[in-house]
Design brief:
The structure holds two protein chains of two kinds.
Chain A: H1 2-26, H2 39-52, H3 54-86, H4 88-103, H5 110-117, H6 121-145, H7 149-157, H8 162-199, H9 205-214, H10 218-246, H11 255-259
Chain B: E1 2-15, E2 18-31, E3 35-39, H1 46-53, E4 61-66, E5 69-70, E6 78-81, H2 93-97, H3 99-104, H4 108-121, H5 137-149, E7 155-159, H6 167-184, E8 187-192, H7 195-201, E9 204-208, E10 215-220, H8 235-257
Helix pairs in contact in B: 4-5, 7-8
Classes of the chains: A mainly alpha, B alpha/beta.
């Protein structure tokens, strides 16, 4: 109920102000159409795009590479994070490389991936995968080590196997961190998808944006931006809901906590 | 046969500034079903002792046995209660109590019956489906006590189990623990910082010196059972407490004024 009431005010007032400012800008202030489309112009481009199926196809493509890379990157991130948390020597050996790679802005290797993996969908999914990998890796590592040491001692005192301790204690204790990592990586994944499409693509919302910039078609560009926002908000909302549902016992771990590590 | 037997237990940790002795020549023998408290200033190796007895730590020298069987590593006949309840927040009360059975690979069906029995022993029969965050601190610690008993351990190791509770809950828990101990007849090793708590609960009290922990005194408490809050007002109770204060407090006071 609280959620709905909060939505009411924020969802009506803020857009109303924005829309009013927009009308003023394109009306009395006469900002030219190639800088800012009219609201009607954008709406027309949006409706046309989805009616003709072109924007639908672009949205589907971007969604696909984002989710594909997100799933792969998160899975790899969790696996390596778990290995590093469980085997300390491995952690010490790999730490310098991981720190170095982490410091690198991942989008910078998009052109290299193009050279190595080609112009197809694969190179794009790989970029998203790399983007999604690190937040999950770091949060898995931190989360798995956050389990109460007494609980681990207790399990050891009962000669519980490492495997049992891992699944019964460490993973559930890490769940909150893990979801925080997933939320960060989903956002980064979407960035990766758009950059990959900027660099080379004939389809996707990123491609639509770079093309409409060349043709100064801001109406279409705004339609694509709006679609991207909707996609990002949807993914984020779904993850937040899953977080609340799965990690029902702690409702305080927030994205901002994890975001600093990304 | 003794419930707990320790002979010249020594633990030295290697540190960057040489070796540090945590526990020196700790010897005690406690009959089966006895209640032993270990008391001493911070850093006297009380927790080291507990880890030793749980089989989580190997002594540098000396040996210990439970019911005649030497402690050589983790063993299944020991129950542990820590200062914090350390429950799994993602599991119900019942599932938390069942943890030792799951860890040991025991029969879950029989374990469940036993767990429910123990939950009613600690007065939480109506809370088996609740989650830890729905319980108060005292209730959580009772769940931890039920958990420590579910696999029928011969010895219960308790590391300052009431230290994190408020004073009122703490007094109630003392009564509770006495009742549970008298009903179940377990050998209990109870580590504490509280003199009245130790006197109230124990048959025997071992006083350790500051690091490295050495046995300063090993006394038998003959106060009649069951003890209640009136016991705490008796002169005999006060005398024992004062004697213990002298043993523990004065060396430190002397140090502080020196």
């Amino acid at each position: 109920m609280r959620l709905i009431r909060r939505f009411d005010s924020s969802l009506i007032v803020a857009p109303a102000v924005l829309l009013a400012a927009w009308f003023v800008a394109v009306g009395p202030l006469a900002v030219p159409g190639y800088v800012l489309p009219t609201p009607q112009g954008m709406l027309k481009a949006l409706v046309n795009g989805y009616a003709s199926g072109e924007l639908t196809r672009d949205l589907a493509f971007t969604t696909f590479i984002t989710l594909g890379g997100f799933v792969c990157g998160s899975a790899f991130g969790f696996l390596l994070g778990a290995l590093l948390a469980e085997f300390k020597p491995l952690d010490r050996m790999t730490a310098p490389y991981i720190i170095a790679f982490q410091a690198l802005p991942k989008v910078a290797i998009a052109p290299l991936l193009l050279v190595w993996l080609g112009f197809g969908i694969f190179s794009k999914i790989v970029l998203v995968t790399i983007m999604c990998f690190f937040p999950v890796l770091i949060n898995t590592q931190i989360g798995l080590q956050a389990a109460p040491p007494e609980l681990i001692d207790l399990m050891r005192a009962f000669s519980a196997s490492r495997w049992l301790i891992f699944w019964k204690i460490r993973v559930p204790a890490a769940a909150g961190h893990l979801f925080a990592g997933l939320q960060v990586s989903a956002i980064l994944g979407l960035i990766g998808a758009v950059v990959a499409e900027f660099v080379s693509s004939t389809v996707g919302l990123g491609h639509v944006i770079s093309q409409s910039a060349l043709s100064l078609d801001t109406g279409l560009m705004f339609s694509a931006l709006l679609s991207l926002t909707a996609l990002g908000v949807t993914i984020n909302t779904l993850l937040r809901m899953a977080h609340h549902r799965v990690v029902f016992w702690e409702r305080r771990v927030t994205v901002t906590e994890a975001a600093t590590e990304a | 046969m003794n419930g707990l037997e320790a002979e010249n237990l020594c633990v030295t940790y290697a540190s960057s500034r040489g070796s540090v002795a945590a526990l020196e020549d700790f010897s005690v023998s406690l009959p089966r079903g006895g209640f032993l408290s270990v008391i001493g200033p911070s850093g006297c190796g009380k927790s080291t002792l507990l880890r030793l007895l749980a089989g989580l730590l190997k002594p540098t020298r000396g040996s210990a046995s439970i019911d005649g069987a030497p402690i050589a590593g983790p063993r299944r006949d020991v129950g542990i209660v820590f200062q914090q309840p350390t429950l799994m927040p993602w599991h119900s009360t019942l599932e938390n109590v069942l943890l030792p059975i799951r860890a040991l690979g025991g029969d879950i069906g029989a374990g469940r019956t036993k767990a429910l029995e123990l939950l009613s022993l600690v007065g939480l029969e109506n809370f088996s489906k609740h989650f830890p965050y729905e319980l108060s601190g005292g209730m959580q610690q009772r769940v931890a006590i039920a958990r420590s008993l579910v696999h029928d351990p011969s010895v219960l190791l308790m590391d300052e189990p009431f230290a994190a509770l408020d004073a009122l809950t703490r007094e109630l828990m003392m009564l509770e623990l006495q009742r549970i101990w008298m009903l179940t007849g377990r050998t209990i090793v109870f580590i504490t910082h509280s003199i009245p708590e130790a006197v109230f609960l124990s048959d025997r009290i071992v006083v350790l010196s500051p690091r490295p922990g050495r046995v300063v005194e090993d006394m038998t408490i003959g106060l009649p059972r069951p003890r209640d809050f009136k016991t705490m007002g008796t002169p005999a109770f006060g005398d024992i407490c004062n004697r213990l204060r002298e043993l523990i407090g004065y060396p430190q006071l002397a140090e502080a004024t020196a």
